[in-house]
Structures are given as structure tokens and as C-alpha cells.
Amino acid sequence: MTDIGFVRSDFVEPRPAPSPTSGPMVWMKKNLFATPLDSVLTVLGLAFLAWIIPPLWGFFFGNAVGPGGTVEECRMENAGACWAYIAAEMEFFIYGFYPATEFWRPNIVFGLGALLLIPLLIPKVPFKRTNAVLILLVYPVLSYILLAGGMFGLRPVPTEMWGGLLVTLILSVVGITLSFPLGIILALGRQSQLPIIKTVCVMFIELIRAVPLITILFMASVMLPLFMPQGMTVDKFLRALVGVTLFTSAYVAEVVRGGLQAIPRGQYEAAAALGLGYWKRMWFIILPQALKHVIPGIVNNFIALFKDTSLVYIVGMRDLLEAVKTKNDAAIEWQSANTATTGYIFAAMVFWVFCFGMSRYSIYMENRLNTGYKR
Fold first, then answer.
1. Average pLDDT over residues 265-283
2. pTM value?
3. Of 245, 222, 240, 220, which Cα lies nearest the Cα of 319?
């Protein structure tokens, strides 16, 4: 038998360790310096950051005047952002001309809204139906009684005195709450087999989408009183609320219609084969699938609605941005080189926080509801 065994008589030279496949250096080489062009762009980007970050840091933090500062510090030559001005005028930015002795009323509205909305947005919290009824039916009535007053011994506060973040949140929350179901009804009506319903919905949607929001607000402010009976007036805040809601509902209707058209025809036929009526087919089979597909588009309209509330100045309402502008023009004692800029930056930060929050929540809902389509 041939011996095929082999015993090595000398040591093998050590070989170099394999190249790492993970870590910061590997990531940088793969994403920042993979090609010569990537390397050039990375260097230019770092140079741009090195040029822009120091002055921004100095304006926002390094040379900024904190909440406890004075106007003299804000007027210094090298002073940055005047956060002391924001802290001093924060009440006006939140409540507008709402009486200071009645701030507890909008505070209760803010607190109740948060207590009802947060559990509704968390999927695992129970009693969703009760929570929805409270926030859609009970909360608006209670909020109006608290804010407007005139009953139960509460001091009347006309809507002309409302302003700031209070107006922005009310317009956006009520507009979103009302425009969503109205948009769904318009989308279903546009696909209806009844010519009258379809024609009315198509005319409404196309008319609203053909004009800018500022035109609708202007018409609601100027033209609506002309169609009311003599001696009867409509509150300016209500005019703005109706205009914003109708405008957003038309866009939501088109987004929902796109979701309805994306559903395969077999889903409609399968729902009909089960013996379900029209509304049950839509409620249990079609709409849940359609709305899941169009979450990004719907949230995009809601974000646009939140930002478009700044246009209500056309009807004399002072939202957050208009409150900042009004205070910038009126606060003579706080006039400095950076006071107005700081006010507008504060308003932009508030808008960004709310819009970014809605965007992140929509991504969370997409990931949670998209389990059946993951690859």
C-alpha cells in the first residue's frame, strides 16, 4: 500500500491578516473615498462645513444672548441671536392678544389635546374607539367653550384676540381632522356610478385645485358675507377654518383616489362575491388597503396645511408667523440688529418641529402597516 501521508518538516511563513470588512475606516473608504470624484466631493463638502459651521455656531450659541440676557447685550456689536427677546415675548408668540389672566384656558386645551392625541397615535394603547370619540366629538366642543367663553361664567374672548401658536394649532388640527374624512367622501364620490354625485365631486375638486389657498381665504373673507342674510355675520376665524378645510380636502381626495385606483380589480370583485354591500366593501376591504398605500401623500398634504396656516393673515388672524412679525415691528424696546432675525428663526424652528414630527410618524406607520409587502 502506498503511503500518502505527509508531515511538514518546516514552519510556514505567517501571512498578513485579512482586510477588515467593517468599521469606520471601511465605511469612509466605501462611501466617501470610493472613487477620485467621490474623494474630491468629500473634500469640498468638508471645506464647506468648515467654512459655514463656525459662524453659525457663533450666531446660535457662541455669541448668542441667552434667555436671561438684556437688550443691551443684544445690541452689542458682536452679539448673535437674541434668545432673551424670544423668552421675553414667548407668551405673545403662543397666545397672541389672549388675556393674560385667562391663559389657564388655552393651557387646559393644550393639555387635553396632548392627553387624547398621544394615546390615539400609539397602536398598543387600548380603548381606541372611545379615545377617537372623545377627540373628534367631545374635545372640539369643550375647547370652543373654554377658548371663546361667554358661558358657565367664563369671560368672553373674541377670536380677534386669539393669535400665535394657538391659532396655528387650532387651524391645523381642525383642518386635518375635518379634511381627511371629507376628502375620502369626495374621492368615493368622484368614482361613483351616479352622474350627479360624480359631477358635483369633480367640479368641487377641480375648482378648488385650480386656485391658490390665498384666493380662497380672500373670497371667504370678502365674498362670503355678501351671501349671508342682512345683519348676519360670520366669524373671521370660522371663515379661515372653512377655507383651509375645503382646500385641503380637495387635495386629499385626489391622493385617496390614486390609492383606490391602485387596488387590483380582483379585490373589488372578491368583496362583492362575499355579499358585502357598497359601504361594507369600502370600509372593510378597499379603503384600508388604499389608505395604506397613500400614507406619504396624505401626510404631505397635512404638512402643507400646517405651513399654509400662515396665510390666514389675509383675513386678519395672527398665527405664529404673523405674531412674530407683529412683535418684531412693535417691540421697540427690543430693537437690535438680530432681533427680527431671531424671531423668524424661532418661528421656523417651531414649524420644523411639528412638520418633522408628522413626517417621522408617517414613516413609522408605513413600516408598521407594510409588513405584507416587505421583500
1. 88
2. 0.86
3. 240
